[in-house]
Amino acid sequence: MIGKKSMIYVAATAAILASAGVAQAKTVCYVTAADSHAYATPANVALQERADELGIEILNLSQDFDVQKGTEQLNTCVARGVDGIILWPLDPQAYIPGLARAQQSNIPSILINSPMAEQANQFIKSFTGPDVYEEGEMAADALSTAMDGKGSVVIIAGQAGNGTTIGRVGGFVDRLKEVNSDIEVLDTVNADFDQQKALVVSRDLITRFGDKIMGVYANDDTMARGFIDAWKEANPSEPTPPIVGINGQKDAFESIRSGEMYATIVQSPVEDGKLAINTMAEILDGKEVDSRLPIPLTVVTMENVNSVEPAF
Amino acid sequence: MRQTIAIVLQYRVAIILALTLTVSGLIVPGYLSETTLSLGLDRAAAIGLIATGLTVLLIAGQIDLSGGAIFALAGIVSTILQPSLGILPAALVGVFVGGLCGAINGGLVVGLKVNSLVLTLATMLIFRAVAHWITNSQPVTGTDIMFSLTMAQIYLDIFSIRSALFIVCIILLHLWLTRTIAGRNVFAVGSNATAAEESGVAAGRVVFFGFIFAGSLAGVAGVLQSLVTNTGSPVFGSELTVAVIAAVVVGGTRLEGGRGSALGTLGGVLTMAALTMAMEFQSVPAYLQQVVSGLILILLVVLDRTVHTRGRAAGAIPLLVTQNPITTGGKP
Amino acid sequence: MSEIASELDSESSNERFARGSRLVDLLSKTGLSLAILAVILYGSFSSPAFFTTGNFLNILTSMSIIGIVVVGMTFVLVVGGLADLSVPATIACGAILSLGLQPVIGPVPAFVVAVALSGLIGSVNGVLVGYLGVNPIIATLGIGTIALGIVQAAVGGVIVYGANPESAEFVKGRLFGIPVVVLIFLAVAVIGHFILARSFWGRWTLATGGNYSAAEASAVPVKAVKAGAFVITAVAAGISGGLLGLTLQSARPLIGQGYEFSAITAVVVGGVSIMGGFGSVPRAIAGLIFVQLLTNVMVLDGVRTPIQGFVLGILIAGAVGMDSALRKRGVA
Questions:
Q1: Which is it for the CA torsion A274, A280, A285, A288, positive or negative?
Q2: Of A63, A259, A270, C83, which sits most exposed with the smallest number of CB within 10 A?
Q3: How many angstroms away from the CA of B171 is the closest CA of chain C?
């Protein structure tokens, strides 16, 4: 399949050379978190579609959730001499030298979806997307409301060491501390954003804590689903404790309607993808952009579940 | 004719590398530029350093699955100690930790006389758990980002510090394996440890030091990665092991022991890096990249089999588990 | 003594396995039972939630999916095939196809096709390992990568969701108070045990793993037997993947990540030797039960997830160390 693509490429290059001096198609390197993922896939698709509309060519590189691979892919982007880089960081620091190298080569970079540490700011033009830390805070507020500010909860976290996990757990825990909440975190377990792993750890959590689980915070809706399934297995007749997830998937909306879940936070991958490429397009046109461009985050509960669109 | 085929097969890694570079150079614009090559080389360095260590182990008839975990652990240690020791001493301690992990692997494999595949699977879990434990699963940050930027610099238009180190290591290893008695003993141990013992080679010691060497190089790679990224993370290197084994095997080194070469590994690492780079340049989806690298791996191994195994029972149990007293546990 | 280690002498080697296995059998069987008992005792004291029907049912349900793979993996280890690292790919193949094909051909045919195609992946592994003599690690690593890539390409690299709630309800439901997945696991285990312990195929498998040349000399179709072990594992992983997909109602390509190592861990902890020629399905399942109980106790005691790897690693190292020690005793 290299052959076929490259033929197109050769043709395209020829066309570009022929029209030297005339405005040529810009190429943007998009280092995404993964190809196949509930959230990343629709974001990638949206970004690609919007880029097609804008006439920007996308060089799509998938890190497959491996930070190291991502840091190396930044090298590819620089070597390829692209016009801009959109990076989905999975670590707050590790990409900085790569971004610095891009800057040396006069390639503007922006971050999509997740923030990086402050030191990275001088190397990026903007950070677009949801703030995972803020999501953690919003989840804490939602769960506090559901539980009247007291009781004990379990946290089902994503992959240990992953940037999104760190932000979403950190925001949640810090927020509880900040408001001097009487909510106690019984335990935080990692289920790697995986439904099956969440199912297994939830079974164990339910056995271990039983009635002490008065609330659940899952780092995403997939894992919230895992907890609900485990709860139904163990206590078919009892209602679930209030569960808060993140992402705003369709099945989470259904769970909220049926009362199995208390809330989710909608962050639209489509908006996420579009905003990033739109911002990059503006940068390529020589416009100034804000250093922080958020996408709207909406807390969805029983009250507004019918008026909000699910994210995917 | 037959001779031509034999030559082609003998230098198959070099040929495939040359083919990859030529084809990519023709169809991918800007592929054969200095920037691409230097950055491609830099990117190959982490895998390459671990692969250098693994080459020795595979030749000695052993395997190490824990390289990726050692990579992470050494990086973390070198980053955590930066404030108290300074960057360079901390880096040395990181490498030392890598060697220590290797010594643990080697000590257990030789001392308990167990199969290295299963044992290093165990230590992989253990080292990774330690990495999570000391960092509380959070990435740790180094003290000086400017140092990282210097480390990532390309010198003489082609080498970064780590890619230069990789090339130096692999050439030294090549000389050691081919020019010294100790080096040749590694091959002897790998092809038949019992016979090697009988002719006076301390097989256990060779294997033990092989593990230390592999661990130290994984440590070097991990420390350099942490210096370059100013980060030590417990999730670093989780996908490395497979890529490293593939690169070494593509380079013609055998998992069964007794055969392999450092230059082959260099070829294997560069081939894999060149391929990845070319496919990324063309925005080939990751899953199709996997298919291509998988096919190359299988193709080269099957080629290797058909060339070298005439006369040997095709299904014979690999030496890794039968004739090696270190793995079978039966000392003569 | 020395001729045993130095040469693949059929007579002495067979005797070694026959004589050794009785002692090894007794020691490690009682050893594992004692260990399981100890964990149960400890668990009962440390957590009131441990010794309850609900918890045991939960452990049983949780181990069923991986348990099916363990049954297959036992064959690979016994036949001397080291390990099947393509399990994540075959699980993904089973899960993605059994959900993806539902709207096209209905849930039951989809499941059957998914398992059959997984078996096909296994037969490619089998041909490479059994007939072409490629090292199993490399063969299954390469084929796994390729298969996973193709499956991803087939569904466009995205996540597949279920379209048939009835089939999900059936898999998640209970029959006579026992979860359906547990029943399927038990059925697979019984069939696997029957094949390995009571059938001619099992005898061939043990003979091939115990002494390849001797088995070949006594007219065992060694190549087919070796290849068969990989087909069995792939079919088991396909079933496991299909069930996983149906339970979750969604499947992504990385769904089977880590299952290969979990399965190997269980089999090795069960005392099945990675050298081949010895082992049984009940042993492997006992190993799995032990690992699952221990994990359960750790979770109930609040041990952090990444740290659990530490204990697992020590467990594997201990198990292979013991295997090697007992084996030596058996030979003496």
A1: positive
A2: A259
A3: 26
Is there a contact between C157 and A201 if contact means CB atoms under 8 Å apart? no
As a whole-number percent, the residues of chain C with pLDDT over 90 amount to 41
Q: Which chains touch B (3 or more CB pairs under 8 A)?
A: A, C
Residues 6+ apart with CB under 8 A from C194: none
Considering its fold, how many domains does chain B have in total? Answer: 1
B126, B256, B287 member nearest C313 (Cβ): B126
Q: Is A9 on the interface with B (CB under 8 A)?
A: yes
Q: For B15, what's the count of Cα atoms within 13 Å in the CB-facing half-sphere?
A: 11
B109 occurs within a structural domain: yes
Chain B residue at shortest CA distance from C209: B317
Q: Which residue type sits at A310?
A: P
pLDDT band at B5 (very low <50, low <70, confident <90, very high): confident
Q: Is B322 helix (H, G, I), strand (E, B) or coil?
A: coil
Task: Tell me, yes or no, whether B63 lies in a domain.
Answer: yes
Query: Looking at the complex, does the CB of residue A184 fall below 8 Å from at least one CB of chain C?
Result: no
Q: Show residues of chain C in contact with A234, CB under 8 Å.
A: 54, 58
Distance between CA A257 and CA A222 in Å, rounded? 17
Domain residue limits at B18: 9-309+317-325
Mean pLDDT of chain A, nearest integer: 86
Q: Which residues of C touch B112 (CB under 8 A)?
A: 317, 320-321, 324-325
pLDDT in tens, C225-273: 999 999 999 999 999 999 999 988 888 888 888 898 889 999 999 888 8
Which domain CATH number covers B65? Answer: 1.10.3470
| B:272-291 residues touching chain A, CB 8 A cutoff | 277-288
Residue B57 pLDDT > 60: yes
Q: Which domains does chain A have, with CATH numbers?
A: 25-129+270-295 (3.40.50.2300), 132-266 (3.40.50.2300)
**How far are the Cα atoms of A105, A118, B161 from residue B156, in angstroms, in the given order?**
17, 32, 11
Handedness of CA C296, C299, C303, C307 (dihedral sign): positive
Predicted pLDDT of residue C14: 42
Which DSSP letter does residue A93 get? S
- Highest mean pLDDT, choosing among A260-264, C60-64, C209-213: A260-264
Per-residue three-class SS string for C254-273: HHHCCHHHHHHHHHHHCCCC
Q: When comparing pLDDT for C304 and B299, which is higher?
A: B299
Question: Residue B33 falls within a domain, yes or no?
Answer: yes
Residues 20-39 of chain C with CB under 8 A from chain B are none
Q: Does B30 touch chain A (CB under 8 A)?
A: yes
Chain C residue whose CA is closest to A40: C158
Phi, psi of A286 (to 5 degrees): 85, 10
Q: Minimal Cα distance from B30: which residue of A?
A: A80
Separation of alpha carbons B189 and B195, rounded Å: 8
CB contact under 8 A, C305 and A204: no
Q: What pLDDT, on the 0 to 100 scale, is given for residue B315?
A: 37
Q: Where are the alpha helices (DSSP H) in chain A?
A: 2-18, 40-54, 67-80, 96-104, 132-147, 163-178, 195-209, 221-234, 250-257, 269-284
Q: In what order do the strands lie in the sheet with A126-128?
A: A57-62, A27-32, A84-87, A109-112, A126-128, A292-293
Read off the tokens for A63. Answer: 């890190």
Token pair of C331 as six digits: 């030979």
Task: Report the alpha-carbon distance of residue C92 to residue C153 in Å, rounded.
Answer: 13
> Residues 156-185, chain A: which have Cβ within 8 Å of B?
159-162, 166
Domain membership of residue B4 (yes or no) is no
pTM of the model: 0.84
Cβ atoms of residues B96 and B90 within 8 Å: no
Judged against a pLDDT cut of 60, whether residue B332 lies above it is answered with: no
Our separate counts of H helices and E strands in chain C read 15, 4
CB nearest A41 (choices: C55, C65, C158): C158
